[in-house]
Hints:
By secondary structure, the chain is an alpha+beta fold. The chain contains 2 helices and 6 strands; from the N terminus they run αββαββββ. It has helices spanning about 25-30, 60-80, and strands at about 30-35, 40-45, 80-95, 100-110, 115-125, 130-140. The chain has a 6-stranded antiparallel sheet. The termini are far apart. The relative contact order is 0.21.
Amino acid sequence: MTEQTAEITPGQFAGMDPAAAGQQLNDKIGLKLVELTPERVVGTIPVEGNLQPYGLLHGGANATVAEALGSVLAALNAGPERAAMGLELSCTHHRAVRSGTVTGVATPLHVGRGTITSEIVLTDDEGRRTCTARLTCVVRDRPPGA
């Protein structure tokens, strides 16, 4: 896959605060979004800089990637007049990663009026599954004045 960075614009998501745009956790972990559609959101992070004390990719980094990709997928499915917010996240860590890049792919499992659930599969550079996550987001009408 050729990596290109995909851009999220404030107009894509209901109620996105422009003042918070420069304070995103995604930036701190080095998350790059490479594909953005309502059917599939793909992103990558470097393992370097996201380690736990034993030199492995931190499980919290996996959870952050899963929440970020699943939330973007939910927001794209909710549409510009509705807001999607994380309700429940579960992660199963299958394999340790010590170096390289981790790629996450979020796909919808359920797209409803009130909730959107996605599966997020994270893999290492060899394509081995390292984590499987499931995120459910609640969907609400756009906040008044947003």
